From TrEMBL:
<feature type="transmembrane region" description="Helical">
    <location>
        <begin position="12"/>
        <end position="35"/>
    </location>
</feature>
<dbReference type="InterPro" id="IPR007360">
    <property type="entry name" value="SirB"/>
</dbReference>
<protein>
    <submittedName>
        <fullName>Uncharacterized membrane protein SirB2</fullName>
    </submittedName>
</protein>
<keyword id="KW-0472">Membrane</keyword>
<dbReference type="GO" id="GO:0005886">
    <property type="term" value="C:plasma membrane"/>
</dbReference>
<keyword id="KW-0812">Transmembrane</keyword>
<keyword id="KW-1133">Transmembrane helix</keyword>
<feature type="transmembrane region" description="Helical">
    <location>
        <begin position="96"/>
        <end position="114"/>
    </location>
</feature>
<dbReference type="Pfam" id="PF04247">
    <property type="entry name" value="SirB"/>
</dbReference>
<feature type="transmembrane region" description="Helical">
    <location>
        <begin position="71"/>
        <end position="89"/>
    </location>
</feature>
<feature type="transmembrane region" description="Helical">
    <location>
        <begin position="47"/>
        <end position="65"/>
    </location>
</feature>
Length: 122
């Protein structure tokens, strides 16, 4: 696969994971049971896996690795893991604060991806 193929795959997976997060969060807050069915959870996890694998492919093509030579890639990885962790916890436990923290991690990760700067304001 080429760099552009990995980039488009990554962007598609990011859009899908955000869409699934919004739908599942709204469904959990509304008390809908179908958002916690196994096919929804597994689909969300598989999309997140595609996000991570395509991110690794992009790291390979750009020769920028987290914790090694790229602070903004490290920040994206930390933001992505934070989002995934808080989203998984909040969607199972139906905690509004967890969903809000996951959303903050998601926005932060998107900001870092666009600006390629690990800390806002620097």
């Amino acid at each position: 696969m080429s760099y552009m193929a990995f980039k488009h795959l990554h962007l598609l997976a990011v859009v899908l994971t955000v869409l699934f997060f919004v739908v599942r969060s709204g469904g959990v807050l509304a008390g809908l049971q179908w958002v916690n069915r196994s096919w929804m959870r597994i689909s969300h996890h598989m999309i997140d896996l595609v996000v991570l694998i395509s991110a690794l492919g992009l790291c390979y093509f750009l020769s920028q690795w987290p914790f090694y030579n790229s602070a903004w890639v490290t920040a994206k990885l930390v933001g992505l893991v934070g989002y995934m962790g808080f989203a998984a916890f909040a969607l199972r436990r139906q905690k509004i604060l967890g969903l809000a923290i996951a959303a903050v991690f998601l926005v932060y990760t998107a900001w870092v991806a666009v600006n390629k700067v690990p800390f806002p304001g620097f």
